[in-house]
Amino acid sequence: MQTPPRVLTVAGSDSGGGAGIQADLKTMLALGVHGMSVLTAVTAQNSTGVQGAWELPVEAVRAQYRSVVDDIGVQAVKTGMLATAELVEAVAELLTATDAPVVVDPVGVSKHGDPLLAQSALASVRTRLLPAATVATPNLDEVAQLTGVEVAGEEDLREAAAAVLGLGPRWALIKGGHLEGEAVDLLTDGSEEHWLRAPRLDNRHTHGTGCTLASAVAAGLATGLDVPEAVRRAKDYVTGAIAAGFALGSGIGPVDHAWRQR
């Protein structure tokens, strides 16, 4: 049997299964690629928030990465929660030595507003991690955290994208999901623009959207799609997953990664 494309996620664990490594691997399976993982942190997390987080030692993260890449190989890498400056620096070093497209989801806070990145790590994200990215996928809170640009409406997305591109990624995907009206995102490399629009869905169960989108983009790149097409298909997949999001626990439930299979 033919080996499927291989995608590596470097991220934290969500014990509730809605985001993080768990969401990444579910997305990759749903989109037909083989998902592999480097665990950076463990969280105690459920539908109401993050009750605790513990990062792994740098040597453990580096060993996981080398174990996978040196033997199995990768066609794309996706990063999520990296937690500390030391982990950001180590992962950035590993990425620059890997010949594969990289999707960076610069995770700063959880869906519930819990911090997942130390303030001391922001400089490393700006100067080391984002320059290694083929595509960076910040939400509006992460844009403000990294660049200082506040997005109040769709007209501000170009400024946000320019500020993110100034930090070094080849493409910036600015996610406008927190704006009023339709869900609009802007993908640009500074010379061409792609506006991606979808209706805003009346479903509060949206835990894991950022992880899912970034992983879907990485899956597309691993199969040989160019960046605009990979992002377009990822947006379609996430829109369907949000529409099918379901209640879990007493708080915000997850998107449904298996909505197409159902």
TrEMBL record:
Keyword Transferase applies: yes
Pyridoxamine kinase/Phosphomethylpyrimidine kinase domain segment(s): 14-256
CDD domains assigned: HMPP_kinase
Catalytic activity: 4-amino-5-hydroxymethyl-2-methylpyrimidine + ATP = 4-amino-2-methyl-5-(phosphooxymethyl)pyrimidine + ADP + H(+); 4-amino-2-methyl-5-(phosphooxymethyl)pyrimidine + ATP = 4-amino-2-methyl-5-(diphosphooxymethyl)pyrimidine + ADP
UniProt xrefs under Pfam families: Phos_pyr_kin
Keyword terms: Kinase, Thiamine biosynthesis, Transferase
Entry superkingdom: Bacteria
Record's signal peptide: none
Pathway(s) of this molecule: Cofactor biosynthesis; thiamine diphosphate biosynthesis; 4-amino-2-methyl-5-diphosphomethylpyrimidine from 5-amino-1-(5-phospho-D-ribosyl)imidazole: step 3/3
GO MF assignments: kinase activity
Entries under InterPro entries matching the protein: HMP/HMP-P_kinase_dom, PM/HMP-P_kinase-1, Ribokinase-like
Keyword flag Acyltransferase: no
Cited function: Catalyzes the phosphorylation of hydroxymethylpyrimidine phosphate (HMP-P) to HMP-PP, and of HMP to HMP-P.
PANTHER family linked: HYDROXYMETHYLPYRIMIDINE_PHOSPHOMETHYLPYRIMIDINE KINASE THI20-RELATED, PHOSPHOMETHYLPYRIMIDINE KINASE
Protein name: Bifunctional hydroxymethylpyrimidine kinase/phosphomethylpyrimidine kinase
Organism the protein comes from: Streptomyces sanyensis
Lineage: Bacteria, Bacillati, Actinomycetota, Actinomycetes, Kitasatosporales
